[in-house]
Amino acid sequence: AQSVAQPEDQVNVAEGNPLTVKCTYSVSGNPYLFWYVQYPNRGLQFLLKYITGDNLVKGSYGFEAEFNKSQTSFHLKKPSALVSDSALYFCAVRDYDAGNMLTFGGGTRLMVKP
Amino acid sequence: DADVTQTPRNRITKTGKRIMLECSQTKGHDRMYWYRQDPGLGLRLIYYSFDVKDINKGEISDGYSVSRQAQAKFSLSLESAIPNQTALYFCATSGGQAYQPQHFGDGTRLSIL
Questions:
Q1: Mean pLDDT of all residues in A97-102
Q2: Is A51 on the interface with B (CB under 8 A)?
Q3: Which chain A residues are within 8 Å of B99, Cβ to Cβ?
Q4: What is each CA distance from A83 to A96, A113, B33, in whole angstroms?
Q5: Average of pLDDT values for B72-92?
Q6: Cα A43–chain centre separation
Q7: Residue A1 with chain B: CB contacts under 8 Å
Q8: Which residues are registered as beta bridge partners of B76?
Q9: What is the mean pLDDT of residues A2-7?
Q10: For residues A32 and B99, is the Cβ–Cβ distance under 8 A?
């Protein structure tokens, strides 16, 4: 079985400071990892993914994520936060060897204060 | 125009009523999904369909049914709604490769009194 944990319900950061939203995963096979963002009254929007290759992946809106196989983590990062980054962020994993279904974490609310 | 359209966007109804949520897409994807979102629980998969003739139960299918009317249309039904089905429901689509992300509609907020 595959699972995703987002240990922080909420992350608070000041505008201009770096941000990190944490994600750890568990799969039996090779992981495909995704980050999505949800703004109020909207569906989830795809930010970035890790499939293979370089452990640092870059995505939309200046976000990036670092894949760490030994720590089974895929943390989302941004060097300088914007107030407009305030939203709900979801990490998701797909176990390539287990039916390709996507499993989501519980979500982390990011609050960026001016 | 949105690539994945859900109707209605909001619905309030009573216990025991039959409800249908509809989803249509213009992305040309074969795969479609229905999820339920509850605070702190993320998204949980209700049903998914890999093509018109292939429909599968997800993690929480009890109390729900689906119909794939065409490649572009996938509807979710609650035959007899109960209050603990109050949630935000999302439809999503994806291409056929495991590395391809899913694309979501804007959701239906369903309240069952």
A1: 68
A2: yes
A3: 32, 49, 51
A4: 36, 6, 32
A5: 96
A6: 16
A7: none
A8: B21, B66
A9: 93
A10: yes
Instruction: Identify the pLDDT of residue A96.
Output: 66
CA dihedral A75→A80→A86→A91, nearest 10 degrees, is -10
Q: Which amino acid is located at B25 in the chain? A: Q
Instruction: Give B49's contacts in chain A (Cβ within 8 Å).
Output: none
What the block records as the tokens of B73 is: 């249309």
Confidence at B96, pLDDT banded by 50, 70, 90: confident
- Closest by Cβ to B45, choosing from A51, A101, A106: A101
CB pairs under 8 A between A and B: 49
Dist CA B99 CA B74 (whole Å): 22
Mean pLDDT of B70-96: 95
Q: Is the pLDDT of residue B43 over 70?
A: yes
Per-residue pLDDT tens over the stretch A29-87 = 888 999 999 999 899 999 999 998 899 999 999 999 999 999 999 999 999 999 999 99
On whether the CB atoms of residues B81 and B62 are closer than 8 A, the answer is: no
Q: Which tokens belong to A98? A: 């287990």
- Give burial (CB, 10 Å; 0-12/13-18/19+) of B65: middle
* Portion 5-44 of B in contact with A at CB < 8 A: 40-44
Closest residue to A106, CB basis, from B42, B98, B106: B42
